[in-house]
Design brief:
Helix content is about 25%, strand content about 25%. It is α+β, with helices and mostly antiparallel strands and about 450 residues long. It binds FE2/S2 (inorganic) cluster and fe (ii) ion.
């Protein structure tokens, strides 16, 4: 389009979009570049509570699948359509070992082995000729994870430090979004939406302190495995530095969602660990845990009874909790992200300074997708002193007198405290907050 036309008022005619989505990042079906990339990571596919006495039909990464638990207790994740003549195994009969297709009785084990082809001759060669499509699954704390990549490349299930806490309740939940995965997954790298969508535009969804304009820096993790940001604000006598993170391809950890920065705190950790899982190119699902422990939510605003299938205990996260009109009057994350379109067209956006995190995330994804296409091996993450993968998200709230140039002070604090959080990454879970407090207090003392 002519640049002059783009700038003039009443230019709808010129700006009506003819652009298309960025398929390299947004399409995840079998054989697509991003689809191959996603298949190099364990993905959650359902909540354990969804796996009952009947098979569960699900779609993940554009593949139609059926998830079930056989009568011996073994979980199976199989291609949905029977290898014989394609009847759906969602109508299969769960057996002592595996699942039996309703149409002609073929029996499949949870690894796809064909155990019986009862209508065929006794020495039928069919069971030796093929295995039905199947994926390995692992059940962990109320979620079912699947490895949908090449079986010989399957890494260990990634155990993050935040999943390994003592005295922490992890309550699983799952929420559907009728839009592409990327617009949901990139939201945590945009902390400025907390100021506007979550506080100033209508009302405070969490705490009025979220409306204070933050000073934000984004950083790449070692090995470009993700991005973390420091989100720093002045709130009364305190400087509040919040680190949040996204690991590729689409794992995010926001700190305490009900954080109230009215007292000093040294690194209470995450309120949520969530995966954004592509269902197909125009729908996705957040499959996640809410964390509940005594270091979080000091005001008692959370409600674990409102966390589960299709629900979570904060406003504006689903398409079912409110009417369309209520969503219009008080929009939340769900309305903002789903309304970006079935697949947001990046060519129609106008990114600004506040979108550096989103732009960086897309860059990292693109390079990682291309690296997998080029056959680059996956890197193993570094482990901390407890032998698990250390993560970055948490809050540090410390009393610091207001400076004449307080924005400069906030920037300095964000950088110094963000560096301390990063430098203590490999310490044990127990040692790390102690060390963070010591180093942050030293930083404050040295400023006086
Ligand atoms: S279609 Fe499944 S056994 Fe024939
Ligand atoms: Fe949000």
């Amino acid at each position: 389009m002519d640049r002059k036309q783009k700038k003039r008022p009443f230019n709808g005619y010129y700006r009506a979009s003819v652009a298309t989505e960025d398929a390299e990042l947004t399409h995840t079906g079998p054989g697509t570049p991003a689809g191959e990339y996603f298949r190099r990571y364990w993905q959650p596919v359902a909540m354990t509570e969804q796996v009952g006495e009947l098979p569960l039909a699900i779609e993940i990464l554009g593949e139609e699948l059926v998830l079930f638990r056989d009568l011996a207790g073994q979980l199976g994740l199989l291609h949905k359509y029977c290898s014989h003549r394609r009847a759906s195994l969602e109508y299969g009969i769960i057996s002592e070992k595996g699942i039996r297709c309703c149409y002609h009785g073929w029996l499949y084990d949870t690894d796809g082995t064909i155990l019986e082809v009862p209508g065929e001759p006794e020495n039928s060669p069919i069971p030796k000729k093929i295995c039905h499509g199947a994926y390995p699954v692992e059940e962990y704390k109320g979620l079912v994870f699947a490895w949908m990549g090449p079986p010989d490349e399957m890494p260990d299930f990634p155990l993050f430090d935040t999943l390994n806490q003592l005295n922490n309740d992890m309550v699983p939940y799952s929420i559907d979004y009728p839009c592409n995965w990327l617009q949901v997954a990139e939201n945590p790298m945009d902390p400025f939406h907390s100021v506007f969508l979550h506080t100033r535009v209508t009302r405070a969804h969490f705490n009025p302190a979220w409306g204070a304009m933050p000073v934000v820096d984004w950083h790449r993790m070692d090995g470009d495995s993700g991005i973390y940001l420091t989100n720093t604000r002045r709130w009364k006598d305190f400087i509040w530095v919040r680190t949040a993170e996204v690991y590729l391809p689409a794992i995010a950890q926001p700190p305490d969602i009900y954080q109230n920065p009215e007292t000093e705190k040294f690194f209470p950790r995450v309120g949520i660990t969530k995966w954004t899982v592509p269902v197909n190119d125009t729908s996705c699902r957040i499959i996640a845990w809410r964390h509940f422990n005594e270091t979080l939510d000091q005001d008692g605003k959370g409600d674990r009874s409102n966390v589960g299938l299709g629900k979570v205990d904060f406003v504006g996260q689903t398409g079912t909790e409110r009417s369309y009109e209520e969503g219009q009057r008080s929009p939340g994350d769900y309305e903002a992200q789903v309304s970006q379109g079935k697949i947001t067209v990046h060519a129609d956006e106008m990114l600004g300074r506040t979108d550096i995190g989103v732009a960086t995330y897309r860059q990292l994804l693109r390079s990682a997708i291309r690296a997998v296409a080029d056959g680059a091996p996956q890197q193993s993450p570094a482990l901390n002193a407890d032998g698990v993968i250390p993560t970055m998200a948490g809050d540090v709230i410390v009393a610091v007198p207001e400076a004449d140039d307080d924005v400069a002070l906030q920037r300095e604090a964000g950088r110094a405290i963000g560096q301390i959080v990063r430098d203590t990454l490999l310490l044990s879970w127990e040692q790390r907050p102690i060390e963070i407090e010591k180093r942050v207090r030293l930083w404050v003392a040295e400023r006086d």
